Amino acid sequence: xxxxxxDGLEGLAALTGDLLVAGGFGDPAALxxxxxxxxxxxxxxxxxxxxxxxxxxxxxLSFEVPREVFPRYVDEVLAPMLARPAFDAKELDRLRGExxxxxxxxxxxxxxxxFGLTALDSLIYxxxxxxxxxxxxxxxLKRLKREDIVSFYKNRYRPEDIVIGLSASDPSFAARVKAxxxxxxxxxxxSRRE
Length: 194
Hints:
This protein is mainly α. It has helices at residues 12-22, 34-41, 70-83, 89-109, 112-124, 138-143, 146-156, 171-182, 186-193; strands at 51-54, 59-62.
Protein backbone atom coordinates (compact mmCIF):
# COMPACT_ATOMS: atom_id res chain seq x y z
CA UNK A 1 0.00 0.00 0.00
CA UNK A 2 0.87 3.67 -0.09
CA UNK A 3 2.45 3.49 3.38
CA UNK A 4 5.31 1.61 1.67
CA UNK A 5 6.06 4.50 -0.69
CA UNK A 6 9.55 5.88 0.00
CA ASP A 7 9.66 9.54 0.96
CA GLY A 8 9.87 11.60 -2.21
CA LEU A 9 8.34 8.83 -4.34
CA GLU A 10 4.75 9.06 -3.16
CA GLY A 11 2.53 7.29 -5.70
CA LEU A 12 4.92 4.37 -6.26
CA ALA A 13 2.56 1.70 -4.86
CA ALA A 14 -0.40 3.01 -6.84
CA LEU A 15 1.49 3.22 -10.13
CA THR A 16 3.06 -0.22 -9.61
CA GLY A 17 -0.37 -1.78 -9.08
CA ASP A 18 -1.84 -0.04 -12.11
CA LEU A 19 1.15 -0.90 -14.29
CA LEU A 20 0.94 -4.54 -13.26
CA VAL A 21 -2.47 -4.58 -14.97
CA ALA A 22 -2.04 -1.95 -17.72
CA GLY A 23 1.71 -2.04 -18.39
CA GLY A 24 1.75 -5.23 -20.44
CA PHE A 25 2.90 -8.71 -19.54
CA GLY A 26 4.18 -11.98 -20.95
CA ASP A 27 6.68 -12.69 -23.69
CA PRO A 28 8.26 -9.41 -24.87
CA ALA A 29 8.02 -10.62 -28.49
CA ALA A 30 4.22 -11.03 -28.11
CA LEU A 31 3.45 -8.66 -25.28
CA UNK A 32 -0.10 -8.67 -23.91
CA UNK A 33 -0.92 -4.96 -23.91
CA UNK A 34 -3.86 -3.42 -22.08
CA UNK A 35 -5.73 -3.35 -25.39
CA UNK A 36 -5.07 -7.04 -26.07
CA UNK A 37 -6.03 -7.88 -22.49
CA UNK A 38 -9.32 -5.99 -22.82
CA UNK A 39 -10.09 -7.76 -26.10
CA UNK A 40 -9.15 -11.18 -24.70
CA UNK A 41 -11.26 -10.82 -21.53
CA UNK A 42 -14.28 -9.07 -23.13
CA UNK A 43 -16.25 -12.28 -23.81
CA UNK A 44 -16.21 -13.04 -20.07
CA UNK A 45 -17.78 -9.75 -19.00
CA UNK A 46 -16.56 -6.40 -17.74
CA UNK A 47 -15.38 -7.90 -14.45
CA UNK A 48 -12.85 -10.13 -16.21
CA UNK A 49 -10.59 -7.17 -16.93
CA UNK A 50 -8.31 -7.09 -13.85
CA UNK A 51 -8.50 -3.99 -11.66
CA UNK A 52 -6.07 -2.58 -9.15
CA UNK A 53 -6.78 -0.39 -6.12
CA UNK A 54 -4.35 0.93 -3.53
CA UNK A 55 -4.95 1.91 0.07
CA UNK A 56 -2.59 2.65 2.95
CA UNK A 57 -1.93 -1.01 3.75
CA UNK A 58 -2.56 -3.03 0.60
CA UNK A 59 -2.77 -3.10 -3.13
CA UNK A 60 -5.80 -5.09 -4.22
CA LEU A 61 -5.97 -6.83 -7.58
CA SER A 62 -9.39 -8.19 -8.43
CA PHE A 63 -11.32 -9.83 -11.24
CA GLU A 64 -14.56 -11.72 -11.85
CA VAL A 65 -14.86 -14.52 -14.39
CA PRO A 66 -17.36 -17.28 -15.09
CA ARG A 67 -16.53 -20.55 -13.32
CA GLU A 68 -16.00 -22.46 -16.57
CA VAL A 69 -13.19 -20.15 -17.76
CA PHE A 70 -11.45 -19.72 -14.41
CA PRO A 71 -8.60 -22.24 -15.07
CA ARG A 72 -7.88 -20.70 -18.47
CA TYR A 73 -8.02 -17.19 -16.99
CA VAL A 74 -5.50 -18.03 -14.29
CA ASP A 75 -3.14 -19.73 -16.76
CA GLU A 76 -3.38 -17.13 -19.54
CA VAL A 77 -3.96 -13.88 -17.65
CA LEU A 78 -3.26 -13.96 -13.91
CA ALA A 79 -0.12 -16.14 -13.86
CA PRO A 80 1.79 -14.33 -16.64
CA MET A 81 0.60 -10.91 -15.42
CA LEU A 82 2.05 -11.62 -11.96
CA ALA A 83 5.21 -13.44 -13.05
CA ARG A 84 6.22 -11.49 -16.17
CA PRO A 85 5.05 -7.88 -16.02
CA ALA A 86 6.58 -5.59 -18.63
CA PHE A 87 6.00 -2.28 -16.81
CA ASP A 88 5.94 -0.56 -20.20
CA ALA A 89 7.53 2.90 -20.08
CA LYS A 90 4.86 4.42 -22.36
CA GLU A 91 2.13 3.15 -20.05
CA LEU A 92 4.03 4.56 -17.05
CA ASP A 93 4.07 7.98 -18.73
CA ARG A 94 0.37 7.71 -19.63
CA LEU A 95 -0.70 6.65 -16.13
CA ARG A 96 1.54 9.21 -14.47
CA GLY A 97 -0.10 11.88 -16.64
CA GLU A 98 -3.55 10.68 -15.58
CA UNK A 99 -2.55 10.75 -11.90
CA UNK A 100 -1.03 14.23 -12.21
CA UNK A 101 -4.16 15.46 -13.98
CA UNK A 102 -6.39 13.95 -11.30
CA UNK A 103 -4.34 15.45 -8.48
CA UNK A 104 -3.88 18.80 -10.17
CA UNK A 105 -7.46 19.49 -11.11
CA UNK A 106 -10.22 16.97 -10.51
CA UNK A 107 -9.30 16.20 -6.89
CA UNK A 108 -9.10 19.88 -5.96
CA UNK A 109 -11.96 21.13 -8.09
CA UNK A 110 -14.43 18.27 -8.50
CA UNK A 111 -13.80 15.95 -5.56
CA UNK A 112 -13.38 18.50 -2.80
CA UNK A 113 -14.43 16.06 -0.05
CA UNK A 114 -11.72 13.56 -1.09
CA PHE A 115 -9.22 16.42 -1.21
CA GLY A 116 -10.16 17.41 2.35
CA LEU A 117 -9.88 13.82 3.62
CA THR A 118 -6.47 13.46 1.99
CA ALA A 119 -5.32 16.71 3.63
CA LEU A 120 -6.66 15.53 7.00
CA ASP A 121 -4.84 12.18 6.67
CA SER A 122 -1.62 14.03 5.84
CA LEU A 123 -2.03 16.19 8.94
CA ILE A 124 -2.95 13.37 11.31
CA TYR A 125 -0.19 11.05 10.08
CA UNK A 126 2.41 13.76 9.50
CA UNK A 127 5.92 12.40 9.89
CA UNK A 128 4.87 8.76 9.30
CA UNK A 129 4.49 6.73 6.15
CA UNK A 130 0.71 6.76 6.66
CA UNK A 131 0.79 10.43 5.70
CA UNK A 132 1.48 9.45 2.09
CA UNK A 133 -1.61 10.01 -0.08
CA UNK A 134 -2.80 6.78 -1.70
CA UNK A 135 -2.49 8.19 -5.23
CA UNK A 136 0.77 10.01 -4.50
CA UNK A 137 1.89 13.61 -4.68
CA UNK A 138 2.64 15.72 -7.74
CA UNK A 139 6.33 15.88 -6.80
CA UNK A 140 6.59 12.15 -6.06
CA LEU A 141 4.85 11.14 -9.27
CA LYS A 142 7.08 13.38 -11.37
CA ARG A 143 10.23 11.80 -9.84
CA LEU A 144 9.19 8.19 -10.42
CA LYS A 145 11.16 6.18 -12.96
CA ARG A 146 10.54 2.75 -14.41
CA GLU A 147 13.45 1.42 -12.33
CA ASP A 148 11.62 2.51 -9.16
CA ILE A 149 8.54 0.52 -10.26
CA VAL A 150 10.59 -2.61 -11.03
CA SER A 151 12.47 -2.40 -7.72
CA PHE A 152 9.25 -1.87 -5.73
CA TYR A 153 7.67 -4.85 -7.49
CA LYS A 154 10.65 -7.11 -6.79
CA ASN A 155 10.80 -6.11 -3.13
CA ARG A 156 7.08 -5.92 -2.29
CA TYR A 157 5.25 -8.39 -4.51
CA ARG A 158 6.39 -11.61 -2.87
CA PRO A 159 4.40 -14.84 -2.55
CA GLU A 160 4.61 -14.79 1.26
CA ASP A 161 3.05 -11.30 1.35
CA ILE A 162 0.02 -12.12 -0.80
CA VAL A 163 -3.41 -13.02 0.55
CA ILE A 164 -5.74 -14.81 -1.85
CA GLY A 165 -9.50 -14.44 -1.67
CA LEU A 166 -11.83 -16.52 -3.84
CA SER A 167 -15.60 -16.66 -3.95
CA ALA A 168 -15.53 -20.21 -5.36
CA SER A 169 -15.28 -23.20 -3.06
CA ASP A 170 -13.60 -25.53 -5.58
CA PRO A 171 -10.24 -26.54 -4.04
CA SER A 172 -8.67 -26.86 -7.51
CA PHE A 173 -9.32 -23.15 -8.10
CA ALA A 174 -7.47 -22.21 -4.91
CA ALA A 175 -4.59 -24.54 -5.83
CA ARG A 176 -4.34 -23.02 -9.31
CA VAL A 177 -4.20 -19.43 -7.97
CA LYS A 178 -1.73 -20.45 -5.26
CA ALA A 179 0.57 -21.94 -7.93
CA UNK A 180 0.36 -18.71 -9.95
CA UNK A 181 1.25 -16.66 -6.87
CA UNK A 182 4.13 -18.96 -5.91
CA UNK A 183 5.64 -18.41 -9.37
CA UNK A 184 5.53 -14.66 -8.78
CA UNK A 185 8.84 -12.86 -9.04
CA UNK A 186 10.97 -16.02 -9.46
CA UNK A 187 14.34 -14.22 -9.27
CA UNK A 188 13.55 -12.68 -5.90
CA UNK A 189 12.01 -15.93 -4.66
CA UNK A 190 15.07 -17.96 -5.60
CA SER A 191 17.43 -15.49 -3.90
CA ARG A 192 15.40 -15.73 -0.67
CA ARG A 193 15.69 -19.53 -0.62
CA GLU A 194 19.49 -19.58 -0.81
